[in-house]
Design the sequence.
C-alpha cells in the first residue's frame, strides 16, 4: 500500500527525472529493474503515460550514472544536438521543436528558423560550431575559426571581453586550475569536494626546463581545508617575490 508520502516521493522522483531528461522514466533501461506493479498503479492513478518516450538529455548527474555509456551511445547514434559543443539546452529544445534534432541537420541548414526566446546570433554561433565539428569528421582534420574581437559602435575594441579580459603578462604569472568531485560522498552524505589544486608557476622551471607545476591534493574535508591554506600560502609567497603576479 502506498502512503501519501510514498506517493509524493515517487511522483517527485518521476517528475524530476522527466524534467532532467533522464531515461529512468519510460524508455529508460533502468525501468526493467526498477518498475514494479506499485509504480504502474501509481502512474496510472496520476495520469502518467508509461509509453511516453523521454530522451536522455545530458545532465550533470550523467557523470556518475550507471547508464551513462548507454545514453552516450544513444546520443551518438542519433547524432543528437547535444553533441554540438556549447549548444545550450534551450537552443537544442528550440531546434527540436521545429523538427531539427541532429547535429548534421542543424549544421546543414541554409537558413536558421526564427524561434522564441533564442537569439538568432546565439544560434548562428552554435551552427558555426556544428559545421566545424561535422567538417572535422568528414575531412579528418581539425578546422578552426578565429573569432573577431568584439567592437563597439565606433569600431573600438570592447574592454574585458574575450582575450581582452586577460591581464597583461607579468613576471611570475601563475596559472591556476581546480578540480572538484561534485558527488563526493562520506557516510552516505553527498557533498562536493575540491580535491586538486594545480598551479603552473612561470617563474620557476622543473627538471625538464618547463614551467613548474605544483599539485596540492585533498582526499577528505579536512584535507580540502589544508589544501586551500597551502594554496593561499603558495600564492602569497609568490606574490611577495613577484608583486605584479
Ligand atoms: S546517463 Fe544521464 S540521461 Fe542517462 S539515465 Fe543517467 S542521468 Fe539519465
Sequence:
Amino acid at each position: 500500500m502506498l502512503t501519501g508520502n510514498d506517493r509524493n516521493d515517487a511522483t517527485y522522483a518521476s517528475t524530476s527525472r522527466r524534467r532532467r531528461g533522464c531515461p529512468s522514466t519510460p524508455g529508460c533501461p533502468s525501468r526493467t529493474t526498477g518498475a514494479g506493479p506499485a509504480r504502474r498503479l501509481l502512474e496510472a492513478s496520476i495520469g502518467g503515460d508509461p509509453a511516453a518516450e523521454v530522451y536522455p538529455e545530458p545532465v550533470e548527474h550523467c557523470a556518475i550514472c550507471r547508464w551513462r555509456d548507454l545514453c552516450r551511445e544513444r546520443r551518438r547514434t542519433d547524432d543528437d544536438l547535444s553533441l554540438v559543443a556549447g549548444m545550450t539546452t534551450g537552443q537544442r529544445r528550440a531546434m527540436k521543436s521545429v523538427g531539427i534534432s541532429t547535429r548534421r541537420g542543424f549544421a546543414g541548414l541554409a537558413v536558421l528558423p526564427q524561434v522564441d526566446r533564442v537569439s538568432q546570433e546565439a544560434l548562428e554561433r552554435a551552427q558555426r560550431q556544428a559545421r566545424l565539428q561535422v567538417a572535422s569528421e568528414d575531412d579528418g582534420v581539425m578546422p578552426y575559426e578565429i573569432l573577431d574581437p568584439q567592437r563597439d559602435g565606433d569600431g573600438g575594441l570592447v574592454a574585458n571581453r574575450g582575450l581582452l579580459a586577460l591581464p597583461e603578462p607579468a613576471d611570475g604569472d601563475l596559472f591556476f586550475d581546480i578540480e572538484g568531485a561534485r558527488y563526493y560522498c562520506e557516510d552516505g552524505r553527498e557533498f562536493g569536494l575540491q580535491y586538486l589544486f594545480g598551479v603552473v608557476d612561470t617563474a620557476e622551471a622543473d627538471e625538464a626546463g618547463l614551467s613548474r607545476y605544483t599539485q596540492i591534493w585533498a582526499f577528505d574535508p579536512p584535507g580540502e581545508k589544508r589544501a586551500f591554506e597551502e594554496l593561499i600560502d603558495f600564492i602569497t609567497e609568490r606574490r611577495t617575490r613577484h608583486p605584479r603576479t
